[in-house]
Amino acid sequence: MTYIAISDTTYPKEIAKIIRKELKANFPDTKFSVRISRGTVAVSWGRGPSEATVKEIIMKHEGGFTTYIFVHRSISNELYNQIINDFANLTGKSFDGDGTIRIDDHFSWNDVAHQLASHGDLTEYHGVRSTERNVGAFYSDIYEIY
Fold first, then answer.
1. pTM here?
2. Domain residue spans in the chain?
3. Other C-beta atoms within 10 Å of 19: how many?
């Protein structure tokens, strides 16, 4: 991973420039949006690295004059539905096209798709598969995107 050293007194505009450079160096094929508003930096993208991977690179810049850094991955409805359908096929659950319907006491189809997409690298989506873990509080503990 490529990192750029900064001080605690770096302003949000400078932080945003540094974040853009680091993201471009680490993920040259992914298009990121880096915006500044009132001392915060918002980073968003679609297909590409997981939220955890992006946060690992950029969250060290939070603090000082840049109070908060927000990350948000935007996923197309088409890809969301593909993730849900692949998960339904893998688990044998029936998906009727309504992502708001709960599949258990805690999670809806949309919740499951969000969990899996948040933790997975979507640069090249192939499907959903079981992990070697058999238990977990979230579906993303047991299933993953590959």
1. 0.73
2. 12-73, 77-145
3. 22
